[in-house]
Amino acid sequence: MAPGEGSSFGTRLAKAFRPKASSKLQKRPRPSASASTLAEASGSPQYEIRSPSPIYHKEAVIDSQLGENLDHTALLHSLVYDDEVYDEQQLSRTTGIACHPEDHTLSKIPLPIWDAVLEYLTPFEAASLAFTTKGLLWRLSLRPWQALNHPENHQYKIQFLLTMDGYLPNHLLCFLCASYHYRIHHGSETLKPAATHNPLYKCPKAFDLPFPRTRITPRRNLPFSFVQLVTRAKRYGPAYGIPVESLVRRWKEDHWTHQSQFAIINGHLHMRVSSSCYAEPGLTQSEVRLLLFSRDDYSPYFSACAHWRDGMLMELCKCALSHIPKPADSMGQKVKDKLHQRHYDPRSIVTLCESCRPMRRCPDCPSEYLIELKNMEDRPTNSFKRAISVTRWCDLGDGLTPMSPEWAACNGELGEYDSFGAIGGRAISGMFEAHFTKEHIPGQRILNLNPRAERHSHDDPNWY
Question: What is d(CA 275, CA 215) in angstroms, rounded to the nearest whole number?
Fold first, then answer.
């Protein structure tokens, strides 16, 4: 028997129960200086002891702009909505324990005191308070924002959404549903006649309720959305709307010619509409009505505010038409006029009376009117004719909301508005013309358009 064969079974059994090397990652021990020197002196080869399991090295991705490590897995996990955290928040509200980790002075105020503070605030103020910091949002919860969805708080919700107007250049606030809609034609919105379908955004209530707008002429109006666009462009920048010059128009309807001009003065949108029409002398009462009133809705052909029935506007226009001189009879003509077959001089200057000559201001809205008789050239006949011209200047407000005093007053939606007290001594027409000419404008006497404070309805025939 060879030596060592008798112990082969015990040797094999000891090897079977010998503990195996660990598969865990272990830190490689750094060899000491003495061991390395001894190995080099002996000339024996050096062997590196490695772990049985492989070690994977992950290369770190560093952002070149911020200098931070980009861990996409951590970013994806941070977007997960954790229901337990929000359930804990609601639980803390019921138990009266503040769970927000921020530690500042507001965290020391008990929650019942915050509930008492909300009772003294309007829904707009309460929602703005909850929107201030995360700590206040944790303490006030979502109740102030949920209260804005109630129908009775519609105006407060609009007031709260207006605070975000400067951060949404691609959207426009809809006042019917109190939400922001994406602009369909960004930067290329065009003002069109009232009969043309011209949506600026998609609104679910577009066919249920009428959009806020103001009347310019019988078939022309100005939607409030365009007032928003031009005032936003002036307030925040061109990306938020359209230039005010894009609203200027010149058109002709029936026998009247109209021209509109707009300007933003002191943050308010001002409008001037000049309307003119040829008029013959010696018109009867029926002919005067056909000349001044539209057959569509029996409103004036020219631009007028919602209070034109109450004041003296139509009475003054009829008075101005009565000043057009009639042609003289054949017996009273001069010999020179008979030879040239001329009844009267069409270029003679016509002066108005003390009643229809001055400028008039509506006491119930910021609108001013000026009635004139001019000699205008008739292009088809190449002759000058008498024409009546009515010019209206008005202030349409700041363009933030349709409930602004100026916009609501011009549309007759504001019961109490004193234009003489609100505007003061300076005329709207003077500010508008000075914005373009930059020169001194001669003073014009401005009188009250409704000195008798009359109120006429549709059933009263006196306005016609």
Answer: 14
